[in-house]
Write a structure and sequence with these properties.
The structure holds two protein chains of two kinds.
Chain A lengths: L4 E9 L2 E2 L14 H11 L4 E5 L4 H15 L6 E4 L5 H9 L4 E4 L1 H5 L2 H10 L4 E9 L11 E5 L4 E6 H10 L4 E6 L11 H10 L4 E4 L5 H8 L8 E4 L1 H4 L5 H10 L22
Parallel strand pairs in A: 1-3, 1-11, 3-4, 4-5, 5-6, 6-9, 9-10, 10-11
Antiparallel strand pairs in A: 1-2, 6-7, 7-8
Chain B lengths: L2 E6 L7 H9 L2 E6 L2 H5 L4 E5 L5 H8 L1 H12 L3 E5 H4 L4 E2 L5 E2 L6 E5 L19 E8 L4 E6 L1 E5 L5 E7 L2 E9 L2 E4 L7 H14 L3
Parallel strand pairs in B: 1-2, 1-3, 3-4, 4-13, 5-7
Antiparallel strand pairs in B: 5-6, 7-10, 8-9, 8-11, 11-12, 12-13
Helix pairs in contact in B: 3-4
Classes of the chains: A alpha/beta, B alpha/beta.
Chain lengths: 275, 206
């Protein structure tokens, strides 16, 4: 059975993890390589690096971070932030990324999704969709969400559900769905929009924005709640509130299928299979 | 002494992570896109991402296809990863239909779009691509998969491990003699993947 994924996300600014990382047993170094390695050891199913630098120098530094992180982990690495054009994707993949997330550039030019999927394969192209709930109007029977870009600072007027349909039809391999209303609140994913998108599109959906406790991961992933295929979180892991393995143990105990942490399995040897 | 591995660069995706993983398990890796170099190799790893299409057809029909077949026919250790495994089969339905190397009997099919994710009526459909960690049988270990097409093997003898997605049970790994293929990405499957690669390298020794 395919397992739900837990994806810790590191926000990188000028080559350092912002907000700081406070793992048990690790000094607060803010070093992304050390943080990614710790997540990898704890059994993260994928790792996400997000570049939140605004400068060209910062972008160069980010490429270097991707390279150094990819060199330390043996698990899929998704990177995003500031990806505008095809050469940006190429450079990130060359640096060791397995998947590249595009956001504002896809809204500006939706056909970029198809170009990139044709060139690199759908499995490589994640479209990050940032959404915000709109004020209810008279006669609305259900909430309306719009797509926002540039870190939630700019409205697009695009309906979130239609945009997700479009993104999937253009060949995106996954949708990384972030609620700007919930992001940073630590009071849980926006389950309504997560569920609507997850049940609607034919491609996997990663829930993002708002996780503050393990219960939130469960809600996002449970089929009857958020129904997402993967759960992304930042601060609960950064601040050492929980390890990835604790999160997985909690989810397993609450009926969410997750990949067991390897150290719990003892690690079978495979050499017999090869004679 | 490190085992020398030829890593085939056929422009089907990034090789860095495969190279990195092979080095990690003790291989000495040489990357090449030269069919002559591949033809003389003793241990070959052939990775691939993306899709069957004109590019893969060119490999199958060209000098690289001949070189790969030569290594396999000689009985030297060979591992095809993901698309590299699918290419070992007869034919794929992808992109209008393309032939593979025909080393293994079977077809490459697309996952059907109508597989329900649960038992209850009205349950949503399973997502395509099949992305993430799934367990393989008989050993129950987890590996990382990302693919929309799967192999339908015509010879059960070739199937070493299976994996299930929805109602489809497909080969996760195939093996005949010293020729191996894996649908998952061992280079992205943490310790399970590294053990798999190490076993391939060591198994190839004798």
């Amino acid at each position: 059975m395919l397992k739900r994924r837990i994806i810790p996300c590191l926000d990188i600014k000028n080559g350092r993890v912002v907000k700081g990382v406070h793992f048990a047993g690790l000094r607060d170094t803010g070093d992304p390589v050390e943080a990614a390695r710790a997540y990898d050891t704890q059994g993260a199913d994928e790792i996400c690096l997000l570049d939140i630098t605004a400068t060209v120098e910062g972008r160069e530094t980010f490429i270097d971070v991707v390279h150094r992180v990819a060199d330390q982990i043996f698990t899929p690495l998704t990177v995003g932030g500031g990806v505008r054009r095809e050469p940006d994707v190429r450079r990130l993949l060359k640096a060791g990324a397995d998947k590249v997330a595009i956001n504002s550039a896809a809204v500006a030019n939706p056909l970029l999704i198809r170009q990139l999927a044709d060139k690199y394969g759908s499995q490589c192209i994640v479209v990050a969709v940032d959404v915000r709930q709109m004020h209810a109007r008279t006669g609305d029977t259900e909430p309306l969400y719009e797509v926002v870009i540039h870190g939630g600072t700019r409205s697009t007027g695009l309906d979130a559900l239609s945009w997700c349909d479009h993104v999937a039809a253009l060949g995106a391999g996954e949708i990384l769905l972030t609620s700007m209303d919930k992001d940073g609140t630590r009071d849980g994913y926006d389950l309504w929009i997560t569920r609507e998108v997850s049940h609607r599109v034919p491609i996997p959906v990663i829930a993002s924005g708002g996780v503050g406790q393990l219960e939130h991961l469960r809600e996002g992933l449970a089929v009857e709640r958020g129904g997402a295929d993967a759960a992304l979180a930042a601060s609960i892991f950064h601040f050492g509130l929980y390890t990835i393995s604790q999160a997985k143990q909690y989810l397993a105990e609450h009926g969410i299928p997750v990949r067991p942490h390897e150290s719990q399995r003892g690690g079978a040897t495979l050499s017999s299979a090869f004679g | 002494m490190p085992r020398e591995v030829i890593l085939v660069d056929s422009q089907l995706g990034n090789l860095d992570s495969v190279e990195h993983a092979l080095i990690q398990v003790g291989a000495s890796v040489h990357i090449t896109s030269d069919p002559d170099r591949v033809a003389t190799a003793r241990t070959v790893v052939f990775p691939g991402q993306g899709s069957f299409g004109p590019a893969t057809q060119a490999i199958v029909d060209g000098a690289m296809g001949d070189a790969l077949r030569m290594v396999i026919q000689r009985g030297d250790p060979f591992l095809g990863i993901c698309l590299g495994m699918q290419l070992l089969f007869d034919h794929s339905d992808e992109n209008g239909g393309h032939d593979g190397l025909g080393v293994f009997r079977g077809q490459v099919r697309r996952f059907p779009a109508d597989m329900p994710a649960g038992e209850q009526p009205g349950s949503r459909m399973l997502k395509i691509p099949h992305v993430g960690w799934n367990d393989v049988q008989p050993n129950g270990e987890h590996f990382y998969f990302t693919h929309s097409y799967y192999v339908e093997s015509a010879d059960p003898e070739d199937v070493m491990w299976t994996c299930r997605y929805g109602r489809i049970e497909f080969p996760a790994a195939v093996c005949r003699g010293h020729v191996f293929g894996c649908q998952f990405h061992p280079e992205k499957s943490q310790w399970s993947g590294l053990r798999f690669l190490r076993s391939f390298i060591l198994g190839g020794r004798g």
